Amino acid sequence: MTKIAVLGAGSWGTVLGSLLADKGNEVILYGNNAQVNQEINTEHTNTHYMKDWQVNETVWATANLKQALNNVAIILFVLPTQAIRSVAKEVKLVLNQSNLQPLVVTATKGIEPGSKKLISEILTEEIYPENPEKIVAISGPSHAESVAQKDLTAITCASISKENAQRVQTIFTNDYLRLYTNSDLIGVEVAGAVKNVIAIAAGILAGKGYGDNAKAALMTRGLAEITRLGVNCYQAQPMTFSGLAGIGDLIVTCTSVNSRNWRCGKQLGEGKSFAYIVENMGQVIEGATTVKAIHEICQEKAIDMPISEAVYRVLYEKSSVATEITKMMDRKPKQEIRL
Ligand SMILES: NC(=O)C1=CN([C@@H]2O[C@H](COP(=O)(O)OP(=O)(O)OC[C@H]3O[C@@H](n4cnc5c(N)ncnc54)[C@H](OP(=O)(O)O)[C@@H]3O)[C@@H](O)[C@H]2O)C=CC1
Ligand SMILES: O=C(CO)COP(=O)(O)O
């Protein structure tokens, strides 16, 4: 039995925590909302984030980080990107008071605006500057709602340490969740972060009433710009983008009503304001944060990311969807394959 602290009591944190507890691990969920924690501990539900679903009864939720990290072997970050750095700093303070060197796993998908850093880079910087091999990322097509229903799911676990990736593979694997290891940690994280932006664009097209051809074109050209960013700005390996964290996650996020990013886009396409959507989603829309970081990268480096930049202008520069679609189709003719 492994003691695992899951940081983030939202939809994905609760489902992963419950899955790990189903395998006999001791799981403590760190959540900042006392009411949610109490519901998990007494009712074994988390109804705001996961409807009609029971949490494993052995999962214990707490707002006390020190208690959550007591004797822990694995820390799993499942927080929104914007909360990662501040919570990582707190984790470091707690770890400094012990001799523990737990493995740090991230399930968060995003790029931090300002620093333009990936989650593993933030966690390395804040927790393990001397031991980057202790960071592992899990990513791939895996909506919490589907995993909660035990839908057959395959994802990737990536680390610069083969041994640590294999350890995480063993800990998470069960009869409906299969993990593959990947040594391209950076590529896996770029893919997981940027597909959220493309999913917003896919939702916009759906909301505007466009059909299957538009969806296929968007996803294919979206993958081209994700790969271009990963290879040129993060030295990722191109093949990673053909894998579960790349095309796999792009497919599920651009086609599923479970995707918050896609739902955000759909409502934008239907004419709702971004402020209204954020107010009513009640959950994180990671693509809306990551697109800011992408915009910063595009400003600094000559990297062509037309779909992401269009999403940025719709969200943050009050550009209309119709204007951006016209602009997109009016761009000068290009050859298809280029990095
Ligand atoms: N949901 C999914 O299917 C999947 C999600 N992911 C990724 O996992 C990450 C988390 O997503 P998800 O669980 O869906 O998000 P949710 O919006 O469902 O939940 C986010 C949780 O984080 C908590 N939180 C926010 N800030 C802090 C903080 N400073 N300290 C402690 N807790 C905090 C929120 O608490 P509060 O209630 O107080 O707001 C909430 O419980 C994202 O990066 C997402 O892309 C990856 C794969 C699948
Ligand atoms: O990453 C996800 C599925 O793999 C979750 O996507 P959303 O955040 O868009 O719901």
UniProtKB/TrEMBL annotation:
Gene3D superfamilies xref list: N-(1-d-carboxylethyl)-l-norvaline Dehydrogenase, domain 2, NAD(P)-binding Rossmann-like Domain
SUPFAM superfamilies recorded: 6-phosphogluconate dehydrogenase C-terminal domain-like, NAD(P)-binding Rossmann-fold domains
Recorded superkingdom: Bacteria
Binding locations of NADPH: S11, W12, Y49, K109, A144, R260, V284, E286
Broad class of where this protein is predominantly found: cytoplasm
Family per record: Belongs to the NAD-dependent glycerol-3-phosphate dehydrogenase family.
Name the UniProt record assigns to this protein: Glycerol-3-phosphate dehydrogenase [NAD(P)+]
Organism: Lactobacillus bombicola
Organism lineage string: Bacteria, Bacillati, Bacillota, Bacilli, Lactobacillales
